[in-house]
Write a structure and sequence with these properties.
Largest sheet of chain B: 6 strands, mixed
Radius of gyration of chain B: 17 Å
CATH class of chain B: Alpha Beta
Low-confidence stretches of chain A: 400-406
Strand order of the largest sheet of chain A: 2-3-8-5-7-6
CATH superfamily of chain B: P-loop containing nucleotide triphosphate hydrolases
Largest sheet of chain A: 6 strands, mixed, barrel
Oligomer: heterodimer
CATH topology of chain B: Rossmann fold
Order of helices and strands of chain B: EEEHEEHEHHHEHEHEE
Strand content of chain B: 25-35%
């Protein structure tokens, strides 16, 4: 075999054009496949850093199976009950809640994403700090000294990797806390946290029905997820029986930690993998065609070898060795392409990735690439080798014989491969066409506000340090200052930005309705706190009534605005203005009725890629507790991007310890709200374009080869008086027949395969006739061009020379 | 060594039967130098293909060294070709990407012979045809006559029972043609069994027996005086 490989290398070196084209075609497919596999590896296969025995860690939540299959989160008292009840299967149960943390350890306050966690969280996950110690079990008690753990990158950037950092006292969200340790490099649990503090809460602050926490558990050794689920479900049933008002119908939701975390991306990533494997199949079909053509030109050589006594095995081995060499070089070049591909892919992701998601190459990726390369070699190399090992011996050896491996059969195989390529390309193109149409629809979604010329940023006071009144004053002072910046038309603030998906739901009750007994049967609405000026800055039109004013404060009558969806659903026949409703924050508390003072246009607050928004209720920031940090919306007269510095100065002039962060234009906020769709549709489109390109050159290759084989026949036809148009028709007709069959087969396959995209398309049917039709037309046009070029060459055949050559 | 009995070869093309060989009886003894002559299309090459196990007869029997070989499998035919038959083609059919040495070595490689042994067989064969000094050259660097000598060396290298030569001088000028014929004669004199197809009467006379074919039949089998 070694000798065969050596010879194969020599044979390929003597055909550099063939070797280069083949390797490039293969490398394109392998590069795309490896890039996608590195994402699959990161999402689904590679163990997460630092967590030991990750398969024993499960995601725990509560949910209402009759309402939705989605996890709600866990309520603090329920977490305590779970911890008490599920002792047979669960070794440890932890909770976390991410939040903004402002760290002041010097002159400049810095904003980080932090997490409040139960004190035993890192012990449960078995992750140790590299400096200092973990939280002690009692450090989440209300009277415990505040302590903080730093992420490695914060230790490095904020504290210059000071080894003596442990024991230093810093200010986090306005309160002093002692640094007790530094976590290992790369550890940013649960996703991108930089600071961790013990969660100090009580059942009173976080009562049942407020499913605010992420929860996870470590199962005891030998316990299955089903067993853990059964025990937690039993616990959830007990809680529901004891607390029907908040928990009736509520059950426990237990899932593999990784499965839950990657749920959204998994389907699309696997579909993408399917798409690139299609691309690889097209590449293999192309290479098989090239090998068949090459085998035809080597028929005499092979026949001589057989005449000298070579068995079929020896011939197949030698030809297959060439395929293996091509596969190996294709893998190496493909790997190089994949390095760039991963860089490119990562650069197009506009959000910070979770700490455990790294697209770096490990042994799994290398094994995949080598296996794909060798597997492809079998796929594209075996059939041509088998066919070439059976030449028409006598014919091939005869002087003057034309090389034509397989004759009609060979041509049939080549035609079949082109048909397969066209069909595969059509499936890929239809898939990408559907995703592209869905993406365009999302991009054109009317979100209910004018997003042009708007700058947004987040700012506000830390809740632990300040009173609600301070936050009110801060924004009351800030908004006019911002509105006075030259170039600013208007300014306002909101608790949630449109399309950002950072919006919660609350139960609401209309006047005349009975007291809400359990949450899942109540009316639900998004509650958005805004300051006066927001509607104007966002250009959300008022359909009736009035906007909030500075007079709507803690001393005035409670007021709300509702949107048109709420007006339609709740007051279908009357003008809602003047009616009352209650936003229920805690069940069982005295009703806090508010008067509806206006109706505004509906605005999308959920991320556009997700489910559509519920009705919205706007409350004045100062009348509802808890809105310390807000998103500011600045409407500029022109380009808003230059306003950030002036806005920062305005904020610092009011409070020098308050940073502004998440500065971005509203257009970017909206674009980020469906970045996954854009990301996946871009990748699908790139792969589909590659597929189209490969299918086109595959068709071109087969047609060019066929014309070469038929030179004499075409010469005879021309000698007999055929016109140029006859020859064009002869050759392009042959190409178009193949394309038509490929389109037919591909359409049937696409009809069934696009069903896999169901649930991942917005506003487009999986059988969208436009996508199918346009793709078929584009493919047919490209196919026509690919057949036309060899056809045009065929018309230039000199009949005299063609006949003499025979 | 070779016995053909009632060998027929019929080609079927679009339901038209072409009788290339009709009832050939032929014996070739060990050490004989036989030339098969006849006009173009008389069936010479078909006969040689059957003798060389490149093709199978439609009917009749073929025994080589006492063994019936007419209906063997592809693999068995390849094995016998490799061990018992040496081919010399009109167009040399050397493999352009291999050196002279490697071309000659090729049939031995397929035999699974060890490298050391192969080297001595190849060297000996090249020395016999006077081409040992060109072992590292590629076929394209040789003249037509030299290429045919290498082809003869390749045929000889495996020490076959019989050499089959198909118009070995067809692609050579008269001087080189004569040289190759002289080489075959020397080989015959040293004991080789040779069967050569030629349409050139001058070269047919080099053999000690000439079989004339016409329309697929043996019309004359003459032993030289």
């Amino acid at each position: 075999m070694l000798a065969d490989l050596r010879l194969a290398l020599r044979m390929l070196a003597k055909a550099p054009a063939f070797a280069t084209v083949t390797v490039l075609v293969l490398a394109l497919g392998i590069g795309a496949s490896t890039t996608t596999f590195s994402a699959i590896n990161a999402l689904l296969l590679k163990p997460w850093p630092y967590i030991k025995d990750q398969e024993h860690v499960v995601f725990v939540s509560e949910y209402f199976p009759k309402l939705s299959k989605e996890a709600n989160g866990v309520a603090y008292p329920d977490y305590l009950d779970f911890k008490r009840d599920a002792t047979k299967t669960i070794e440890g149960l932890g909770i976390s809640n991410t939040t903004t943390m402002i760290l002041s350890a010097g002159d400049k306050p810095e904003r980080y994403l932090g997490a409040f966690v139960s004190a035993d969280v890192f012990t449960i996950l078995d992750v140790q700090p590299i400096l200092g110690r973990n939280f002690r079990a009692d450090e989440d008690q209300a009277n415990a000294e505040p302590v903080v753990l730093l992420a490695y990158n914060v230790w490095k950037s904020h504290f210059a990797s000071d080894p003596g950092v442990v024991g230093r006292v810093v200010t986090v969200n306005g309160k002093r806390a002692t640094i007790i340790g530094v976590m290992p490099n790369g550890w940013r649990f649960p996703e991108t946290s930089d600071l961790w503090m013990p969660l100090k809460t009580t059942e009173k602050e976080d009562p049942r029905g407020n499913f605010n926490f992420n929860c996870f558990a470590r199962m005891k050794p030998g316990v299955t997820i089903d067993q853990a689920r059964a025990e937690l479900e039993a616990s959830a049933a007990r809680i529901a029986a004891d607390h029907p008002q908040s928990n009736a119908g509520c059950s426990a939701y237990v899932r593999d930690f990784r499965e839950e975390t990657v749920a959204n991306a998994k389907t699309l990533t696997l579909l993408l993998m399917g798409a690139v494997l299609f691309l690889q199949l097209i590449a293999c079909a192309n290479v098989a065609n090239l090998l068949l053509a090459r085998a035809a030109s080597r028929e005499r050589e092979i026949a001589v070898r057989i005449a000298l006594g070579a068995g079929r095995g020896a011939i197949i081995r030698q030809l297959f060795a060439e395929s293996l060499v091509l596969g190996a070089i294709g893998s190496a070049v493909g790997l190089m392409f994949a390095f760039w591909g991963v860089d490119l892919m990562t650069a197009t992701i506009p959000v910070e990735l979770p700490y455990w998601l790294h697209f770096d190459f490990d042994w799994r990726v290398f094994t995949f690439t080598v296996t794909l390369g060798l597997g492809s070699a079998v796929l594209f190399g075996l059939f041509p080798a088998l066919q070439a090992s059976r030449p028409q011996l006598v014919e091939a050896i005869k002087e003057g014989a034309r090389g034509s491996t397989g004759g009609r059969k060979g041509q049939r195989v080549r035609n079949g491969l082109v048909v397969a390529e066209v069909a595969l390309a059509l499936v890929l193109l239809v898939g990408s066409g559907l995703m592209l149409r869905s993406f365009i629809k999302l991009q054109n979604t009317e979100i209910g506000m004018d997003q042009s010329n708007v700058l947004t940023f987040r700012t506000g006071l830390p809740p632990l340090q300040t009173q609600q009144r301070d936050a009110y004053r801060f924004f009351k002072e800030l908004i006019p200052k911002l509105a006075a910046i030259p170039g600013v038309e208007s300014a306002g603030a909101t608790s949630s930005l449109p399309a950002a998906g950072q919006v919660g739901n609350n139960a609401i009750r209309l006047e005349g309705e009975p007291v809400i007994e359990n949450v899942q049967n109540s009316r639900q609405a998004h509650i958005i706190a805004i300051t006066p000026g927001f509607l104007q800055a966002a250009r959300v039109p008022l359909f009736g009534g009035r906007d909030f004013t500075a007079g709507d404060n803690e001393n005035s009558q409670r007021v709300v605005l509702i949107d048109e969806r709420g007006a339609r659903q709740w007051f279908p026949k009357v003008d809602p203005v003047g009616h009352q409703l209650e936003v229920v924050l805690k069940l069982g508390e005295p009703a806090r009725w508010a008067t509806i003072v206006g109706v505004v246009r509906g605005v999308e607050y959920e991320r556009l890629a997700q489910t559509r928004s519920r009705p919205c209720i706007y409350v004045p920031q100062f009348q509802e507790p808890g809105w310390f940090r807000m998103s500011v919306v600045l409407r500029a007269k022109g380009d808003p991007r230059g306003l950030a510095n002036a806005a920062r100065e305005s904020v610092l002039s009011i409070n020098k310890d308050v940073p502004i962060y998440a500065v971005q234009t509203m257009e970017r906020v909206v674009a980020e709200s469906f970045w996954e769709r854009r990301f996946f549709s871009s990748l699908f489109t790139v792969f589909a374009a590659l597929a189209l390109f490969l299918a086109a050159i595959g068709l071109y290759g087969v047609m060019a080869y066929s014309v070469r084989q038929r030179t004499q026949e075409i010469g005879v036809r021309l000698a007999l008086g055929a016109q140029t148009s006859d020859v064009l028709q002869l050759v392009t007709g042959q190409g178009m027949r193949l394309i038509t069959i490929g389109l037919g087969l591909g359409s049937v396959a696409a009809f069934f395969l696009t069903k896999l995209l169901e649930g991942n398309l917005a506003g487009v049917s999986v059988h969208d006739p436009w996508s199918f039709g346009i793709v078929a037309l584009v493919l047919a046009a490209i196919g026509l061009l690919a057949s036309y070029l060899p056809a045009r060459r065929a018309t230039r055949i000199n009949p005299v020379e063609a006949l003499r050559a025979e | 060594m070779i016995r053909l009995n009632g060998v027929r070869k019929v080609f079927l093309t679009d339901e038209v039967e072409t009788h290339a060989l009709s009832g050939i009886h032929l014996d070739i003894r060990s050490g004989e130098y036989v030339s098969i002559a006849g006009p173009s299309g008389c069936g010479k090459t078909t006969l040689l293909s059957i003798l060389g196990l490149l093709d199978t007869p439609s009917d009749g029997s073929y025994s080589l060294k006492g063994n019936e070989v007419a209906n063997l499998s592809f693999a068995d035919r390849a094995r016998i070709r490799n061990r018992e038959i040496g081919f010399i083609f009109q167009s040399f059919n050397l493999i352009g990407d291999l050196t002279v040495f490697e071309n000659v070595e090729l049939p031995l490689t397929y035999r699974g012979m060890a490298a050391g042994e192969r080297k001595s067989f190849v060297t000996e064969a090249l020395e016999r045809v006077g081409m040992a000094h060109r072992a590292k050259h590629l076929p394209s660097q040789l003249s037509g006559g030299q290429q045919q000598r290498v082809a003869v060396a390749r045929a000889l290298a495996g020490r076959p029972a019989i050499l089959l030569a198909d118009e070995p001088t067809g692609n050579l000028d008269s001087r080189n043609g004569e040289a190759v014929m002289q080489l075959l004669k020397e080989l015959h004199e040293s004991g080789a069994t040779i069967c050569m197809v030629t349409h050139d009467e001058r070269f047919a006379q080099h053999a000690d027996r000439t079989v004339h074919l016409f329309d697929g039949r043996v019309i004359e089998d003459r032993i030289a005086a």
